[in-house]
Amino acid sequence: MMEGAKPPKLSHVAIIMDGNGRWAKSRSHLRVWGHIRGSKVVTDIVEEASDLGLHELTLYAFSQENWSRPVHEIQTLFSLLRKFLLRERTKIIENSIRFRVMGDISRLSPETQNLIRGLESTTLENSGLRLNFAFNYGGRSDIVETFKRLDKREISEEELGRSFDIPNVDLLIRTGGEMRISNFLIWQIAYAELYFSKTMWPDFTREEFRDIIQEFFQRERRYGSINAARDWDYSRKEARKNKELFNH
Ligand code: IPE
Ligand code: IPE
Ligand code: MG
Fold this sequence. Notes:
The chain is an alpha/beta fold. The chain has 8 helices and 6 strands. It has a 6-stranded parallel beta sheet, with helices on both faces. Helix 3 (71-94) runs parallel beside helix 4 (110-123). One 3-methylbut-3-enyl trihydrogen diphosphate binds next to helix 1.
């Protein structure tokens, strides 16, 4: 970071929780065992995010593309979501977490859908961590659906940007060693800081999570400018002002 620069603001962390299958395979287990272990790590990281006082955490739990996996694996992932909700419900409420699921949940069992909608409405007014699960989520369809919902022919970047259910991401973490986005929050990560960890998700710990956040605070977010640590929207307003000046 530049001498004297302010550390960047951290409001929203998003995580691509990858590597469950390889973790299991390297231990000669079935892939689903990796998902079971991985779901325990979700509990730890949600707790840590809440303890750290983070504003918002979005977790990629199931992508639209994951439908191409074997039925048995998909069923396991669905049942792990149900179990997670049953297990964590009370803690989520007690810790004043606001819970939401992004994505199309219509193919989940009615029981799981009710659990999700129930927890969403119970925690709607909560002021603690905003916890979003991206389940059966796709970044491109999120953009299309958000635009359709507005029922307009034309739209500004600002207005469309404001209309997403999930705000801009400050820090995107992907575990599992792959360096790609896999159709996650493609609009919202336009200016996110990226962190790729080689750790497989079931081995990811609170300590590594904290270390990555520490590392984030060492970064300098320039947003195309030469000054450090500015908020993206602020910086864009400034850029527009400058452009107007030059047009006169
Ligand atoms: C991430 O782990 C979990 C989901 C995609 C649901 P993977 O299952 O993709 O694990 P790898 O990448 O095969 O190791
Ligand atoms: C991304 O992981 C989806 C989730 C973590 C839920 P994948 O394992 O599905 O991504 P690809 O197939 O390697 O790009
Ligand atoms: Mg994977």
